[in-house]
Design goal:
The chain is α/β, with parallel strands linked by helices. It has helices spanning about 1-20, 90, 100-105, 110-120, 210-220, 255-275, 295-315, 335-345, 375-380, 385-390, 395-400; strands at about 65, 70-75, 80, 125, 135, 145, 150-155, 155-165, 180-185, 190-195, 200-205, 230-235, 280, 320, 350, 360, 370. The N and C termini lie far apart (about 100 Å).
Length: about 425
């Protein structure tokens, strides 16, 4: 009788659990009756969205594309360049030894967005610097550079953008900049860094490169050929936030293993940048002065750039002068031994810094020299004459954010009524 009573109570207990929406406990994991769970496959990254690149030196068939009429353009091709943008002004402009230099040579992410909006509103469209000039041969078979006719949407003006020092140097990591480029969960280029509270942040709103990507997504007519900008890279602290460099003072097997990991990690970033309209140029390996360093030093530096940077980003014909300093002291009036050497290494377009988008095709060697304008703190705070150099792009008085920058004054005249 007792056995039947125990059986009856057990059945009642089971029915009560079921009625309450509960289930009996699962068997222990090591029980022979426990089901074996299969390992979950990691989610595959999203398929990249298609991205089209067109050649602006070729007129679209029938003179139009997507309902837009194109016309030949042989005028000035403007060129603006930026350094990495300030993501967190409260870290950048905190009064430390770096603050004034950052104020001089950088713009904030918000100022950068305002500049993009202004040049877009004023009818500029992006073109790749490598499409503006080409190398050909003259009647004697000598190589020479020529400026290409561009076929632009009717009424539009061409604009090159370049970005110096997109390496994310060590000093930047604690001074309000992004730390490196990554591919986000959506498969698009984003920046990684830490906010002022120390939280990790992956964003498309805090660095010049993803900000421009987003702007083009929202305004596709700003980049009718798919061009974005040219990234001007040194190599002495790696590239794009990845420590791909070697150290000549000391080197260990562990350092080399880490360097190889960093090289592998940056390759998908480079591939996605190239696929979506970004190109690369040299800023020398060590950010060296080409006007004062010896030829031997420049040769060693150039080899190192090709070994450590060029081996990752591929060949380039574009060289951006560090500090804007011209080889041999003058690359316009003469062609000295440094310039000849750099040209022999495959560089054809040599970019300095100036007050307008000057360019000159050299007669005695196959090369182009050109100047770029520099939106930054020095020019945003500049005199009426200085801000006038930028007036075709934007009004500096509308761009500069004096609420977040250090109180260092401005030299321009305020707008009437301001």
């Amino acid at each position: 009788m007792r056995r039947w009573m125990c059986f009856f109570l057990a059945v009642c207990s089971l029915l009560t659990l079921t009625a309450c929406g509960q289930t009996p406990p699962e068997p222990e994991a090591d029980s022979p009756e426990a089901p074996v769970e299969e390992a979950q496959e990691p989610e595959a990254p999203p398929e990249p969205e298609p991205y089209s690149i067109y050649d602006p030196t070729v007129m679209p068939e029938g003179g139009s594309r997507d309902g837009v009429t194109y016309a030949a353009y042989d005028g000035i091709v403007e060129h603006l360049f930026f350094h990495p943008v300030v993501a967190y002004p409260e870290l950048a402009f905190d009064g430390d030894a770096q603050a004034d230099g950052i104020d001089d040579f950088m713009v904030t992410a918000d100022e950068y967005r305002a500049i993009l909006q202004s040049v877009y509103d004023r009818g500029y469209v992006l073109v790749d610097i490598a499409d503006v000039w080409s190398e050909t041969t003259d009647e004697s078979g000598n190589a020479k550079m020529v400026k290409n006719t561009l076929y632009l949407p009717e009424g539009k003006k061409p604009l090159i953008l370049s970005f110096d020092d997109t390496n994310y140097y060590e000093y930047m990591l604690s001074n309000g900049f992004a730390w490196k480029l990554v591919i986000g969960e959506d498969g698009k280029i984003a920046s990684y860094g830490k906010d002022p509270q120390g939280n990790e942040v992956v964003s498309r709103d805090l660095d010049a490169i993803p900000i421009l990507d987003k702007f083009v997504e929202e305004h596709p007519d700003f980049s009718p050929f798919g061009a974005k900008g040219c990234l001007s890279l040194t190599g002495y602290e790696g590239i794009l936030g990845y420590r791909t460099q070697t150290d000549t003072k000391s080197w260990t097997e562990a350092q080399e293993q880490n360097r190889q990991k960093e090289r592998e990690a940056v390759k998908p970033i480079i591939a996605e940048l190239k696929r979506t309209g970004w190109t690369f140029g040299s800023h020398t390996w060590g950010h060296i002065r080409l006007g004062t360093k010896s030829l031997e030093t420049i040769q060693a530096d150039t080899k190192r750039w090709f070994d450590e940077v060029g081996s990752l980003v591929g060949p380039t014909t574009i060289l951006f002068y560090p500090h804007g300093e011209r080889p041999d002291g003058d690359d316009w009036q003469k062609t000295g031994p440094v310039f000849q050497y750099l040209q022999s290494q495959g560089f054809r377009v040599f970019c300095s810094v100036g007050i307008n988008s000057f360019s000159y095709i050299k007669k005695d060697i196959s090369a182009v020299i050109c100047d770029r304008l520099h939106p930054d703190g020095t020019t945003l705070r500049g005199s009426d004459k200085v801000i006038g150099w930028y007036s075709q792009f934007y009004d500096a008085r509308d761009i500069i954010d004096l609420d977040v920058r250090p109180d260092r004054g401005v030299r321009w005249t305020p707008k009437s009524g301001a």
